[in-house]
Amino acid sequence: MFSPTDHVAVAVSGGKDSLTLLMILKKLSSRFSQTKITAVTIDEGIAGYREEAVDLASEYCKKLSVDHEIVSFEELYGSGLDDFLRERKDRLTACSYCGVFRRKAINVAARRVGATKIATAHNLDDVVQTYLLNLFQGDVDRFARFSPVLHDPRGGFLPRVKPLCEVPEKEVALYGYVEGLTFQSASCPYMMEALRNELRTVLNRLELAHPGVVFSAYRAMTRLRALAEPNVAPSELHACRSCGEPTTLELCEACRMVGVTTDKLDIPA
Length: 269
What we know:
Elements: E1 7-11, H1 16-29, E2 36-43, H2 50-64, E3 67-72, H3 73-77, H4 81-86, H5 94-112, E4 117-119, H6 124-136, H7 140-144, E5 149-150, E6 160-161, H8 169-178, H9 195-209, H10 213-228, E7 238-239, E8 246-247, H11 253-257, H12 262-265
Parallel strand pairs: 1-2, 1-4, 2-3, 4-6
Antiparallel strand pairs: 5-6, 7-8
């Protein structure tokens, strides 16, 4: 996942997974003089939730002597998530918007600090939940592109790695508690809107009744991906005509979500 000369942008939300990952990578980087670690935090603009997380991320970055870059939805999209959702009469779930906006924001922040790789703290439970979401939603292309190490051969996106992808959520939390980390206490007010939350509950119950079932699902996922991958051709990337970020269309999904249209840019339909 890493090389000794990497500059790793660690996506740090302030939750247990990302703070634990930051601590682990900081310890490992001390063995390699050419490795650099920078934390990147995305402020979505969720009142009563994100403020605590940003404060925790900043506090631990100072303790670990790690550079910290904060990028907000307001800076990139003109408003925070709360305000954005209030303006939408017919809208998708909050997580649908947030996921797209966050992915773009992390890529922007990582390039801004000059990183060569992005490390995210997705654990085993997160990965299997995503697999099931893609399966239930019929998104074969996205399922086929899953990998603990994501490289874009076209160079549009920085490589992304998931060092905790085979570590159960409970073990990540246990490590953090042993290390004495203070985690975010507030829950996202929008989490109940998401199908992922229901899948999390189902998987937790299955794992409790049948220990090891999540690992089995992960192994099945990796095998199925190997079968699906050759049948999914890579899409051609372009620069978004509005923001310049890589996309397969004239406008990236984030720009389309905030209301940018080809008409406003004088782009032929």
